[in-house]
Amino acid sequence: MDLDRLGEFGLIARLASHIPHRSRRVVKGIGDDCAVYSQPGGNYLVVTADALIESVHFDLNTTTPEQLGWKTVAVNASDVAAMGAAPRFAVVTLGIPKTTKVNFLDRLYKGLGRACEAFGVDLVGGDTVSTPEHWMLSLTMLGETRKKRLFTRKGAKAGDAILMTGTVGDSALGLQILKSPGKKWSGSPADRKHLIQRHLEPTARVKETAKLAKSRLRVTSMIDVSDGLGQDLGHLLSASEVGAELWEASLPLSKPFENTCIKNGLEAGELALGGGEDYELLFTLKSEDVKKLLRSFVNYGTPVTQIGEVTARQGVVWVRTNGRRQTLRKPAGFNHFKENG
Amino acid sequence: MDLDRLGEFGLIARLASHIPHRSRRVVKGIGDDCAVYSQPGGNYLVVTADALIESVHFDLNTTTPEQLGWKTVAVNASDVAAMGAAPRFAVVTLGIPKTTKVNFLDRLYKGLGRACEAFGVDLVGGDTVSTPEHWMLSLTMLGETRKKRLFTRKGAKAGDAILMTGTVGDSALGLQILKSPGKKWSGSPADRKHLIQRHLEPTARVKETAKLAKSRLRVTSMIDVSDGLGQDLGHLLSASEVGAELWEASLPLSKPFENTCIKNGLEAGELALGGGEDYELLFTLKSEDVKKLLRSFVNYGTPVTQIGEVTARQGVVWVRTNGRRQTLRKPAGFNHFKENG
């Protein structure tokens, strides 16, 4: 069988079956944003690893070494945040083409260092090896959380509100702009620059998850939006064995995103739903707590928006701005072994 | 500046300077076999990461997927063992060429699974991504140890005995045989097969380090032999700010290694000193404890041998079998950004 027939998630499930867990201290293995391991002291350790491969995940013609370093840390910090945990420490392995200049590495490490500082992570070690041709970065990050404040993909119940931090779609549109250097884009260059930056220098919602974990708000499930809103919502819903209504009119879109879509005849809703790498938190909350949550985020700096509702009936109903109700069969998003679709 | 002028260890030192540690919980950062992080419960977590790149670290014409999976786990377990710690859990990132067959991956995971079982590790998660061409595997392993039983490279004192587990040189000679398919080797094919297997399926001295950590034997420093006996001894000695006498006549050589060297006119001592990937423990011990240690390893299954002595005077004196004393300037071994030498 070929990899593209199995797909990334089929692959992960198949591979997980080879590796039984032996220790009771493994609270969660493969299948969430992080694995969870119980510590003797009573807290949980969460652990995640993400690899970035040149020409698959990044292009050195369009990203600076500083941005690459930043992003490598941020995408992992986002996974840690999605568990309700605080990032603690990380190790990085770098596969470096032999022709690399030391100056390039210094700049890469500057970016790693800045992101570590921003997200409260200590980079404690790693491995550097040479590669035949392409860059490879793999970062493993560990975080900690109290047992009671662990957020996972499982736990959403019918009637819960679906919310997300920040805005959605910016990164996907930024990537689209980066990938079409020949295209004549209409609208403001500053808008396009903003979108590109959102793709190359994503943030991780470390402070926001800490705020939620400290509060008494009843968060029932959480995931970060990396593969795309539609696909990640799908992961959360299948882990929770529920469905959802998703409201197009409520999606939090940035001004640069809306403007660029309008000026270039792009379907904002579709792009926001299918595009990946927003690194925002997508979570569900007991509906009685929504008002209190929204109040607590007023003047906080990061918008939080309700974008739908959990339903007992499985599947996602995409409520369009024009009132039409579409059933999303297989949510769109990024699959490493298939073309987007 | 080019990477090959800086070398791997120069590079690591330079990069470490970009990343200050913020938390007091970082007991050790870059510069030992593992980083060390203190846990709330009072134990230490140790963490290590090793990446294996196709055509740099392995060749799919000569290694099976099972062996590749096994070795990826074993090399990290060896780093954990070198800290006196017990492996607990690991995450793996796989960079997979798009043309890979699922059957190949199943076999790779079988190897990962077998090694996890052998060394007591739970594989709890990871990331799978596609690569343009070459395989990439990066594994991060976490282990635990009691604070008092942490072994590091620092701590050897003049007069301490230098010991190692197992035998040295097998893996380097196995690699040499693999890399010269056209060469006519003299001696027994079974010997050569053994040496190749020692290269492709190394063990990690997890049980041996547990035995040492549980004992009252005063181990003063430890490292695993991955870059080569000469080079790794050099790391241990510079961390401890001491020197050593290394006795060629005492080096533990396997029969297949000795036979193959003799039949093919190879210098056994030089090869054992310079070759890498033995994944044996190299450690120092208060000289009064040597007898007791050697007694406790009789009939244990893994040989332990004294191969030298720590000296106050820095540098390594290589005492040849013929009685000559040579000063090793720069120990030989593997440098990822230079040719061996």
3D structure, described in words:
Two copies of one chain form a homodimer. Chain A has 341 residues and is an alpha+beta fold. Chain A has helices spanning 3-16, 65-81, 102-119, 170-178, 189-200, 206-214, 229-240, 255-263, 268-274, 290-296, and strands at 26-28, 35-38, 44-53, 86-97, 122-131, 136-145, 161-165, 219-224, 243-247, 281-285, 304-311, 315-319, 325-328. A seven-stranded mixed beta sheet of chain A has the order 8-10-7-11-9-12-13, sandwiched between helices. In chain A, helix 2 (65-81) runs parallel beside helix 6, helix 4 packs across helix 5 and helix 5 (189-200) crosses helix 8. The radius of gyration of chain A is 20 Å and the shape is globular. Residues 331-341 of chain A have low confidence and may be disordered. At the A-B interface, helix 1, strand 3, strand 4, helix 3 and strand 5 of A face helix 1, strand 3, strand 4, helix 3 and strand 5 of B. Chains A, B: It is an enzyme of class 2 (transferase). Chains A, B: One of its GO terms (molecular function) is magnesium ion binding.
